Amino acid sequence: MRAITFDIETKGASVTRGRLDTATLELTVVGIHDTETGEYSAFFKEELHKLWPILECADMLIGFNSDGFDIPILNRYYPGDLTKIKSLDLLSEVYNSLGRRLRLDTLAQATLGRGKTGDGLKAVEWWEQGLYDQVKEYCLEDVRITRELYEYARDKGHMKYKDLGTTKDIKIDASQWENGGSAPSLTHTLPF
């Protein structure tokens, strides 16, 4: 099974009635891990044409808050429909088990023993300052964390978080995650 773990970075955030307006966001960087090659790669918006063939061959997309944020934004740039590719959103898995959302950093610190290297707002600042490679590295580190959380939950059946100073487990049913079914890898979402 070929899985692509991914994360995106954006610029142009605006808040409407206390909520982030994703329609105003512009994609800057996409970071990925490809299980077929074992490599991490990043693509600036101008390089997305190199990313599409990789996604087209994926059996599954893995992300964190990807169904509600990353995929809808990335789909605005994609000539096909990324929602046709099987996806696994780790934040949704946590919510389904725990009944509430947790930050990627919270899960990473408790489960992996290390946290994120920044936050999305800092990445926007770095982009505005022309620190493009720093944004790319930040994005790739989020992909590494997401990939490691995925592997941990898949192998151990849980992730961890801290609640009032106590580390607790979040039971995760990963039994169907890598069940690819009978669908071929090529999803044919691009128009012909």
Keywords, please?
globular, alpha/beta, 192 residues, 37% helix, 5-stranded mixed β-sheet, Nucleotidyltransferase, domain 5
Question: How would you briefly describe this protein structure?
Answer:
The protein has 192 residues and is of the alpha/beta class.
What topology does this entry show?
Layout: E1 3-11, E2 15-16, E3 19-20, E4 26-34, E5 39-44, H1 48-56, E6 60-63, H2 66-75, E7 87-89, H3 90-98, H4 104-112, H5 120-128, H6 132-156, E8 158-163, E9 166-171
Question: What does this molecule look like?
Answer:
The protein is of the alpha/beta class and 192 residues long. It has helices spanning 48-56, 66-75, 90-98, 104-112, 120-128, 132-156, and strands at 3-11, 15-16, 19-20, 26-34, 39-44, 60-63, 87-89, 158-163, 166-171. It has a single domain (3-171), classed as Ribonuclease H-like superfamily/Ribonuclease H (Nucleotidyltransferase, domain 5, 2-Layer Sandwich). It has 6 helices and 9 strands, in the order E-E-E-E-E-H-E-H-E-H-H-H-H-E-E. It has a 5-stranded mixed beta sheet with strand order 5-4-1-6-7, with helices on both faces. The two termini are 25 Å apart. The relative contact order is 0.18.
